[in-house]
Amino acid sequence: MISTQRLIDLMRAVREKKPLLHVITNRVAINDSANGALAVGASPIMAEAHEEVETIAAISGALELNIGNLTPYSIQSMLLSGHAANQAGVPVVLDPVGAGATEFRLQTVQKLLDELDIAIIRGNAGEIAALAGEDWGAKGVDAGEGDGDIVAIAERVARKWHTVTAVSGAADTITDGQQTYCIKNGHPLFPYMTGSGCLNGVIQAAYAAVSPNYLEASVAASVNYAIAGQLAGEKCAGPGSFRQQLMDELYLLTEEKIRRYAAFEEVARS
Amino acid sequence: MISTQRLIDLMRAVREKKPLLHVITNRVAINDSANGALAVGASPIMAEAHEEVETIAAISGALELNIGNLTPYSIQSMLLSGHAANQAGVPVVLDPVGAGATEFRLQTVQKLLDELDIAIIRGNAGEIAALAGEDWGAKGVDAGEGDGDIVAIAERVARKWHTVTAVSGAADTITDGQQTYCIKNGHPLFPYMTGSGCLNGVIQAAYAAVSPNYLEASVAASVNYAIAGQLAGEKCAGPGSFRQQLMDELYLLTEEKIRRYAAFEEVARS
Amino acid sequence: MISTQRLIDLMRAVREKKPLLHVITNRVAINDSANGALAVGASPIMAEAHEEVETIAAISGALELNIGNLTPYSIQSMLLSGHAANQAGVPVVLDPVGAGATEFRLQTVQKLLDELDIAIIRGNAGEIAALAGEDWGAKGVDAGEGDGDIVAIAERVARKWHTVTAVSGAADTITDGQQTYCIKNGHPLFPYMTGSGCLNGVIQAAYAAVSPNYLEASVAASVNYAIAGQLAGEKCAGPGSFRQQLMDELYLLTEEKIRRYAAFEEVARS
To answer: For the complex shown, is ipTM > 0.90?
Structure first.
C-alpha cells in the first residue's frame, strides 16, 4: 500500500529536482501542458524537430508522447525521441488521445506500444478500452460511457504491455497489472477543460522522472493533480475560472493539503 | 421573424445532443475554440491528419474550417474533410480569417467555396467584404474600417454562394440573402481576445449541428455568444479576465439571461 | 540617458499607430503572444505559409521571429519573411528560444543572424550566453544559472551582430553594445508563465515598429512589460491568475503607473 507520505515526498522531489520534461503533444493542449508542468516545478520543453528530439529526449528526466494531433512528421518525432529515451533509460509516458476515435489513431498507438518501452499509459476509459479491443462508445476524444469493468480492462492493458495504466475519470484507476489503486479526488469541471487529461499525462511524466517505481509515481501524480482540481473547482463558477485556478492550485499544493484531502485506496484485483 | 424562444431551444439542443464538432483551425485560436465548444455543451475534436479527417467529418454533427494558419497540408485536410462532410450531409461552417490580407488567403477561400457546399460563412466585415470583392481597409486579420454597406455586401455573399453569411462586429449581421438580422449584443473587449471570432465560428457549427435551418442556427449562435460576451465584459477590467469570464458565461448561460438580454431584430433587405 | 517620458511616449505611440505585427512563433506561446500584442494596442498576424509571408512582412510595422518550435518549413518561413522585411525596412526581432539547448537551434539562430539584419535579439541569459559561445548551464528552454558577466556577454553579442540585445531575467539588461541599461521591474512569477519571454519578444517588436531607435524601443518595451508583470504579480496567488492579470495590466497600463514604478538606469560599460 502506497502511503500518503510517499505522495508528499514525490511532490517535493519534483519541486527540488525540477526535471526537464520532453513533451510532444497536440496543439490544443500544448500551452496548458507547459504551464501545468511549470506549476508543479518541472521544466518542460516542447520539441518536435527531427534534428533535435533524440538529443533532448536522452537528457530529459522523462519523455511524454501525446497523439492528439498526429502528422506523419510528429509520428516520426515520437519514434525517434522514444527510442532515444529508451536507450538512455528515460521513462516514457504515452497518452493515447482519441485512440477509439479512428483506426489511424489506434494503429499509431499500437505501433508506439510495440516499438517502445512505455512506463505509463494515461488515458480516459474510452481510450484505454480501445487499447484492450473493447467497445466503449467513445465519441471523438471524449471518454464515452461504456459499461465494461474498467478495472479489469486497465489491468489487462497493463499486463499486455508491461506498463502502468492510469485511467482518468470521475474516479481514477491506476494499475501495474498486479496492484491497483482507485483515486476519488477530482471535480466535475475537469472534462470541461480541454487538455486537462493531456496535462495529467505531463504530470505523470514529471513524477516518473523522480521515481523509478512508476506505479507510485502514477498514483502520486494522479492524486496530487486531482486534489488541485478539487480545490480549484470549489472556488470556481465555470470552466474558464477552473482552468486558471487549477494552475494556481498545482503551484500552491502543500503537504497539509495532501494529508487533508487525499482519497485513494488499493482495490482487490478484478 | 425568429423568436427568442427559438434561441433558447437551440441552446438547450446543443447541451442535450452534445454534438461532435470536427474543427480544423489555426494554432492561435485552437485552445479557446475547444474550450468554448465544451462550454456550450459540444464535443470538439481538432483533427487534421489526412488519414482520419474524412472518417471524423462524416460522423460529426458539424465541420468547421478556419483558414487562420494555412499550410499546403491543412488546405488538403480541409478539402478532404469538407467533401466527406458534404457527402454525409454534415453542415460545414467556414471562417475566412484574413481573407482580405493576402491574395493567397482569398484564393484559398474561393477554392473552398467553389468546391464545397458551405452552410455558414462567419467573418468580420473586412473578410466578408474581401469575398465580395470590396475594399474594406482591413489590416492583417483585424476588421478594418470600411465605409460600404455591410448589409448589402453580406447579402451579396450569401446569395452568391447559397449560404448563410454571419458578419461579426460591434453589431452582427446575419443573412441568408433573403432574410437579414441585426444583433446588438456584444462587448468592446471582444476584439482584444485573439480568436474570439474563431470561437464564434465554432459555436456557429455547434448550433448548425442541431438545426437544419442554418439562418436560425446562426442567429441563435450569434446572439447567445454575444450575450455571454456582454455579461463577461461587465465583470471584467481587461482582456485577460474577459477571456476567462467569457468561458464561464458560455457555460452558465440560461433561458432567463437570453430572455432578459437578447437584442436582435430583422432588418429590411438592403 | 533615456527618460521616463520616452517610455510613456512610446507606449502611446503603439496604442495610436496600432502597428501590424507579423509574428512567426512557437505553438506553446502563440496564443498569449497574440493576446499580449492586442493588449498593448498592436495588431498581430501569425502567418507562416510560404505563399504569403513575404507579402505580410513587407507591409508590417515589425516582424518577430521565435525559434521555439522549428521545423524545416518554419525555418524557411523565417528566412523568406526576414529577407522581405529587411528589403522593406521593417525591423526584425529575433527570439533565440533554447539556443543553448541543442546544436540544431544554435545553428539555426546563427544562420538567421548571418543572413538577416536583426534590430533586437531578446532572450534569457542562457540563450544570449549560447550566442556568445559561453556555457551557462541552461536547461532546455529555461535560463540556467551561469556565473559569467551577463552585461559583458550581452554587449559582445550586440556588437558582433550590430543589434540591440535584450536579456530578460530577475533584472533585464538591454544594450546596443555602447549604451547599457538595467531594468529592475518584474516579478518572480514570470518564469512560471510559459511563453512569458516569447511575449516579451513580441512587445519588443511592437515598440520597434514605432521607434527607429531600437535601444529606446527595447528599453521602453522591457520596462513597460516588467511593470505590468509587477502589478499583476501583486494581485495574484499563483501562475494561473498571474497570466490572466498580466494581460489585463498590459491593457490597463497608464502614464501614471509608468511614472510611479519605472525602475531602470544606465550602467557603466563592462
So the answer is: yes
